[in-house]
Write a structure and sequence with these properties.
Oligomer: single chain
Structural class: alpha+beta
Largest sheet: 4 strands, antiparallel
Radius of gyration: 21 Å
Bound molecules: flavin-adenine dinucleotide
Number of domains: 3
CATH class of the largest domain: Mainly Alpha
Distance between the termini: 24 Å
Length: 381
């Protein structure tokens, strides 16, 4: 058994950190103010090979693994959550269905350009009436000859305003509950696809969430992933563990940033004649942060490693995601306390971590649903 990262993984971590410090960090203020990630920066990440990190070399990817991808997510989020979120959409949620279930033509026309940063994709599941209860979905895809006709509305769709294609969920059988849900590939430029209003939100100011409308959108029938109606829920489930582990890695990145900056601040800030790090109340906060981070790191990278070995991770992915979500919320809260009034200053990072950590509450399922899943898995043991 070996708990160390390999020299190759350490090198990769270093290179992502250098990229983030050089190209992302100086632009955070601008991105927070504009509420968007510049496409030029998205393109720079493509040039680094980030988008193909987990995809096969055959499609232009790096043939990397989940441990490498978790490192990428952790390091980008340690710098800036909005960029990390958009990158993860492009590397995983927006492209994985094409990678796993797309036709040769779809891989050539969507996956290969996505890896190069020539096209962008995202995942559109959530609807105004709800995101958790898939069976209640109202968007419909009706077969008409060699096409499907799609009508409905999505919301909270990350990057919808700039992407070229969507992986969407729609009902092919309105009476069949969640078993009537299917997944489709939709080109953004298809007539009837319309990106609606931007959603102003507390978290990840620059990630960009939008409403999305489908009005008699006609797509070729082979854009149904899996080839058979009624498969959508199973396909979606097949990538949820990936989403959970890598969302957890984002949380670890924010947790580390908040912890590291808290340590630095506590060493410099003086109260009653000594640096506040000398006061035990501050030490205890930092100690609790450190315990949470060390535990979360083991859980997240163990789950990523298990995925790379092909071992089951239903429990490991869920427990890692649940644990880091609760941990990072504690950590960012304690960080703002250590920073005193500066924790509330919009010129400091602490307030951004406090807001952005809440992203963890949604990606890969809410905390309640994650507990449900762990409970179901325990019942099977
Ligand atoms: C920043 C951000 C980015 C997002 N990006 C995307 C995106 O790109 N694509 C996309 O499709 N969606 C996206 N979402 C939406 C996200 O996936 C949903 O918020 C999530 O799935 C939860 O759905 P909901 O908000 O509709 O909550 P609901 O499903 O309405 O749930 C509300 C509450 O009820 C609880 N609940 C639900 N069912 C049960 C139950 N059976 N038992 C107990 N409690 C229950 C939930 O845990 C939650 O606390 C994004 C959200 C945010 C905030």
């Amino acid at each position: 058994m070996d708990f160390d990262f390999t020299p190759e993984q350490e090198l990769f971590r270093q290179s992502v950190r250098e990229f983030a410090d050089r190209y992302v960090r100086p632009r955070i203020k601008e991105m927070e103010e504009k509420g968007d990630v510049p496409q030029g920066l998205m393109q720079q990440m493509a040039e680094q090979g980030f988008y193909g990190i987990r995809y096969a070399e055959e499609w232009g990817g790096q043939g990397g693994d989940n441990v490498m991808f978790a490192i990428l997510n952790e390091e980008l989020a340690r710098c800036y959550m909005s960029v990390a979120a958009r990158c993860m959409m492009q590397c995983l949620m927006g492209t994985e269905f094409i990678n796993l279930y797309g036709t040769e033509e779809q891989k050539r026309n969507f996956l290969v350009p996505a890896i190069r940063g020539e096209k962008y994709g995202t995942l559109a599941i959530t609807e105004p009436a709800g995101g958790t209860d898939l069976g209640a979905m109202q968007t419909l895809a009706v077969r008409d000859g060699d096409e499907y006709v799609i009508n409905g509305q999505k919301t909270w769709i990350t990057g919808a305003h700039v992407v070229d294609f969507f992986t969407i969920a729609a009902k092919t059988d309105p009476e069949a509950g969640f078993r009537g849900v299917d997944m489709f590939l939709v080109d953004r430029h298809t007539p009837g696809v319309r990106v609606g209003d931007r959603i102003e939100k507390l978290i990840a100011f620059a990630s960009g969430c939008y409403e999305l409308f489908f009005d008699d959108v006609r797509i070729p029938a082979d854009r149904l992933f899996g080839g058979e109606e009624g498969e959508g829920f199973a396909l979606l489930r097949s990538i949820l563990n990936d989403i959970r582990v890598h969302t957890a890695a984002l949380g670890l990145g924010i947790a580390r940033a908040a912890y590291e900056e808290s340590v630095e601040y506590a060493k410099q800030r003086v109260a009653y004649g000594r640096p506040i790090i000398k006061w035990q109340a501050i030490q205890h906060k930092l100690a609790r942060m450190r315990i949470d981070i060390d535990a979360a790191k083991l859980m997240i990278y163990c789950a990523a490693w298990r995925m790379d070995q092909g071992f089951p991770v239903n429990v490991e992915a869920a427990t890692a995601k649940w644990f880091i979500t609760e941990a990072v919320l504690r950590i960012v809260d304690d960080a703002t306390r250590i920073f005193g009034a500066y924790g509330a200053s919009m010129d400091m990072n602490a307030q951004r971590y406090l807001r952005d950590a809440r992203w963890l509450l949604y990606g890969g399922g809410t905390q309640t649903m994650i507990l449900n899943i762990i409970g179901i898995e325990i019942g099977k043991e």
